[in-house]
DNA sequence: CGGCACGTTGAGAAAATTCAACTCACGTGG
DNA sequence: CCACGTGAGTTGAATTTTCTCAACGTGCCG
């Protein structure tokens, strides 16, 4: 119960250029961050002049299940995750959700809306979240003022582009096992970078959401987890994961045939038998 | 035989801020474009002050098979297609190519390199191409000068992001037939927008490249084309395509079972038979 | 203590791949 | 000028992978 929340996806106070820090930082249990803090959070090289900027960005809390933005909603903000876990997703014509990513601390999202001025995907909180609102116009204006910041914004978008390209490549060519393995390695990396254990962590999303993200069914995800568990690559119990053999997960391409589908070893010549 | 080309992916003349238009536009058979022309080519709203900019951007010609940039190559340019057809692709650890897109006239590419300062994918010409070189530093500086241009660059990157998200969603959830259908519809749209016929056109890429792009094997692509041909959605002969039923292609989810795989109608009860 | 969403597991079906043979178009060199 | 080699494309059959459907555990919230 972190804070009282207005409602679904429409924070009524607009982040921007008002506010003195000491006072407003505490008001309503909300926080405000300056440009320097944001650069650090995003792991951008905080450039010299950033410290001089007095612009403050508002934090807003969301509870699990709440949407930060929805499909079709007019775009005017970017969002930075200060804490908590989210998912971003597309809804296709048939009404099926397709998960695009799982933003967490330090991740920037909402950039899908820049082009059409409307969001083309939705973002929802998987846990309680603390999100920093970054009015796009404010950010663009700052970019025009500070060359390093402009480049940093381009860079952040480029990074997202590269990430999605890797995703496309993975979906296009890897087996289900390899996809699940890489998903775990990726989570492990991100938890480690956040200062948490990269070896033991809790999944914040359902098998369904993982499957949607990886282009697999929830059953295939579940079976693959079980198979990894059986051969000692991981230990998994519900949402609690322990990475046991990171290297194997990183390099895994395909499981030996007999593991995933427990079938008697097949003779190399499947010729005359089983009459 | 459009022009004499230096070599693979290393145009020796650096585009930038030199050059008087009338003279250099013809020198060496090369062309130079100003900011206004580029905005038009990219279908950006050409803003007022763009016309005043005297910066010129160099064109370079590539022949089919040549690479515009390679993986690992230091990034300093963006590229705009003035004419011709290309592919962009990732090479995975196993050495397999994974096609990411097929840039054509009006498309901007090379943005993958902004983040890491090195290109993470390669771009190769499928036909003879005329490419405009846009030094990234020059573009960023212009963005800082013109608010509308800065927004337009963000917008172009956002559009690419949304395009890739749609791709991820497609790879994650659509059948092979639906993917191929959408691929054809997408090509049709783009040809039409370029002023060519959206009904009849030539594929510039192999079945292998289409398959790689769609996350399918070349055989599946070929079979799907044949099936579409058989039921009259398209007419196809080698690389020549005629779109016969655009609406059906747009809405296709899955082919009726008997079409793709010509098998005798199976009894609803596959019980006692085939002794 | 239900009710219910989440997760696991199995068996059979469907989709797509693999392997293989064959055809076709095109360009090169004899 | 035509034979021939080669890369591209087509098609078939068998196999593999993944999905679908279904049943059953499990843990949590009201």
TrEMBL record, chains A, B:
Q: Does the keyword DNA-binding apply?
A: yes
For the HTH crp-type domain, which residue ranges apply?
A: 174-247
Cellular component GO terms, alphabetical = cytosol
Please report the stretch or stretches of sequence annotated as the Cyclic nucleotide-binding domain: 62-128
Task: Tell me the InterPro entries matching this sequence.
Answer: cNMP-bd_dom, cNMP-bd_dom_sf, Env_Response_Regulators, HTH_CRP, RmlC-like_jellyroll, Tscrpt_reg_HTH_Crp-type_CS, WH-like_DNA-bd_sf, WH_DNA-bd_sf
Give the highest taxon in the source lineage. Answer: Bacteria
For this UniProt record, give its keywords in alphabetical order, as a comma-separated list.
DNA-binding, Transcription, Transcription regulation
| GO MF annotation list | DNA binding; DNA-binding transcription factor activity
Q: Which SUPFAM superfamilies match?
A: cAMP-binding domain-like (SSF51206), Winged helix' DNA-binding domain (SSF46785)
**Protein's name according to its UniProt entry:** Transcriptional regulator, Crp/Fnr family
Give the organism, scientific name: Noviherbaspirillum humi
């Amino acid at each position: 119960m972190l804070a009282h929340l207005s409602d679904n996806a429409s924070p009524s106070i607009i982040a921007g250029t008002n506010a003195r820090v000491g006072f407003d930082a505490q008001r309503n249990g909300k926080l405000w961050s300056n440009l320097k803090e944001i650069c650090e959070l995003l792991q951008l090289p905080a450039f010299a002049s950033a410290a001089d900027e007095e612009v403050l960005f508002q934090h807003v809390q969301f509870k699990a299940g709440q949407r930060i933005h929805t499909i079709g909603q007019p775009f005017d903000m970017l969002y930075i995750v200060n804490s908590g876990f989210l998912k971003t997703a597309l809804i296709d014509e048939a009404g099926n959700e397709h998960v695009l990513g799982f933003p967490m601390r330090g991740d920037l999202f909402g950039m899908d809306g820049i082009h059409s001025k409307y969001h083309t995907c939705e973002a929802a909180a998987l846990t309680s979240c603390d999100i920093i609102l970054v009015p796009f116009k404010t950010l663009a204006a700052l970019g025009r003022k500070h060359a390093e910041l402009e480049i940093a914004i381009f860079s952040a978008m480029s990074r997202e582009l590269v990430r999605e390209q890797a995703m496309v490549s993975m979906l296009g060519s890897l087996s289900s096992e390899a996809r699940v393995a890489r998903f775990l390695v990726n989570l492990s990396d991100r938890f480690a970078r956040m200062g948490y254990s990269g070896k033991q962590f809790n999944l914040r999303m359902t098998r369904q959401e993982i499957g949607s993200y990886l282009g697999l069914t929830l059953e295939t995800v579940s079976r693959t987890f079980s198979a990894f568990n059986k051969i000692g690559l991981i230990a998994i119990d519900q949402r609690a994961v322990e990475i046991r053999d990171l290297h194997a997960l990183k390099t895994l391409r395909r499981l030996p045939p007999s593991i995933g589908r427990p079938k008697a070893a097949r003779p190399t010549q499947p010729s005359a038998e089983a009459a």
